[in-house]
Amino acid sequence: MDNISLIFLVEDNPDDELLTRRAIISSGLPIRVESAVDGPQALEILLGAAAPQGSARLTPDLIFLDLKLPRLNGLEVLSILRGRAETRLLPIIILTSSAEKSDVYHAYERGCNSYIQKPVGFERFAQSIHAACHYWLRLNQMPGQNKGTTL
Which of 4, 33, 95, 146 is the most core-located residue (most Cβ within 10 A)? Predict the structure, then answer.
């Protein structure tokens, strides 16, 4: 049986969070989803800022990060995560409604791995999420990961 992958979803809109969770679950892949509703909460969970000394922090296999977040926006969260050794290499997909060229540029400039504009309609949205999950969790090889291939 496949290992269960962990996706961390950072989304402040409850309807979009539910929609994204449904799309992830409908992918058919063994995935657990954890979430945060704003930038500071996401950083606390990922970096263990609020955890007692020696406590484990969340280390997801993939992060879906919205840009328009309260208190600390997605670009700021992305910059902080890329500046820390423990989160520098985590795959981070910007998942947002924004199609602004400046948002796309700044997201890549700050180190996102992919930028997905949320499609309209659940079927198209789910197809985008399924493709992203399949690629990042099944096809992509990350440093330190052994997917059974040998030379």
Answer: 95
| Residue 151 pLDDT | 35
pTM of full prediction above 0.85 = yes
In b/e form, how buried is each residue of 29-40, taking b as 16+ CB within 10 angstroms? bebebebbbbbb
- Residue 11, C-beta contacts closer than 8 angstroms, at least 6 positions apart: 17, 20, 35, 37, 64, 66, 95
- Residues 5-64+85-139: name the CATH superfamily: Response regulator (3.40.50.2300)
Residue type, 57: R
Residue 90 token pair: 């985590």
Q: How far apart are the first and last CA of the chain?
A: 24
What confidence tens digit (pLDDT) does each residue in 6-61 have? 999 999 999 999 999 999 999 999 999 999 999 999 999 999 865 445 445 789 99
pLDDT at 143: 82
Task: Say which DSSP state 119 is in.
Answer: P
d(CA 70, CA 117): 19
The residues, any chain, with a CB within 8 Å of residue 91's CB and separated by 6 or more, are 61, 62, 63, 113, 114, 136, 140, 142
